[in-house]
Amino acid sequence: MLPREYLLSRFRTDADTLRQRAESLSSGPPQPGPDAITSRAMATACEDVVAMVAAIPEQSDTVGMISTLTALIPLLDARAAAVTNAPPVRAVYVGASTRIREVADAEARHQHGAPNAMRDESDAEHEDDD
Fold first, then answer.
1. Radius of gyration of the chain, Cα coordinates, nearest whole angstrom
2. Which of 128, 99, 130 is nearest to 7 (CA)?
3. Angle between helices 73-82 and 36-54 (to 10 degrees)
4. DSSP letters along 29-64, please?
5. What percentage of the chain reaches a pLDDT higher than 70?
6. How far apart, in whole angstroms, are the C-alpha atoms of residue 9 and residue 3?
7. Among candidates 55, 102, 48, 103, which has minimal Cα distance to 78?
8. DSSP 3-state assignment of 80?
9. What is the DSSP letter of 120?
């Protein structure tokens, strides 16, 4: 899955799950975790993240896409800083920023070729003999 699609899927699913939770809390017994109002606010924040990511046009160049996605990080961090009265909502924006960093890091590792962790020491010793 491409980075943009991953992020869209992730935050759409989170928004749907939070809205379902809010509905369940509104019509059923209390549950541990955020209340219905907070769950709705978190779902709205997830939808805000989806709108930001969806506003980025699809690109065939993954490096360009990652660069464009990482440009959202300051905006997400600013949104998180602006939410001073609702830590769970702030966590949505912080989480989105973190997900983008993780996607960018994973793509960078993929682009540069991750080191082969399975290589054993005997292979390295034989290289020294050359």
1. 20
2. 99
3. 160
4. ---SSS-HHHHHHHHHHHHHHHHHHHTSPP-S-HHH
5. 87
6. 10
7. 48
8. helix
9. -
User: Which amino acid is residue 65, in one-letter code?
Assistant: M
Q: What is the largest CA-CA distance in the chain?
A: 73
pLDDT digits (tens, 9 = 90+) for 30-76: 889 999 999 999 999 999 999 999 999 988 888 899 999 999 999 99
Range list of H helices, the chain: 3-27, 36-54, 62-70, 73-82, 87-112, 121-129
- Which tokens is 71 given? 């440009």
Rounded Cα distance, 95 and 22, in Å: 20
Let me know: does 14 contact 46? Beta carbons within 8 Å: yes
- Are 17 and 42 in contact, with CB atoms under 8 Å apart? no
